[in-house]
Amino acid sequence: MKEKLQELVINKPIEQSPHYLLSQELEFRFLKSNLTFAMAFIGGIVTLRTALGIDKPITEEFTYSLVAAVLSALCAFHAKHELISDLRNGRTPSKIKRLFRRNLGPALLAISIGFAFRYFESSLH
């Protein structure tokens, strides 16, 4: 049991295979796309709220949506930085780090989209 837990958290030396390096490049591009989508979403909901001229004051849904989108962008940016750092230092990240890198940003963006949908749906009725 202890060995399995250590396997989840301990970094390993980097693999020099072309397949691993290609996977890191693809992961970097995925994170870059996630960062771009989060930033575009932030600009989009602020612009949409202004353009629709919604008289309703800013509610918790809108605030939560903005906060989740900003956190998604920060997670993606941090993950990109960590990926580059791992490649420079010659290490393969632990399974837990890889899990958070790949899933946390998109999950926060999905939450943000859900809150924005609830805000705009309730504001237009």
Automatic annotation (TrEMBL):
Top-level taxon of the source organism: Bacteria
Sorted UniProt keywords: Membrane, Transmembrane, Transmembrane helix
Presence of the UniProt keyword Transmembrane in the record: yes
Protein name: DUF202 domain-containing protein
Membrane-spanning residues: 30-50, 62-79, 100-120
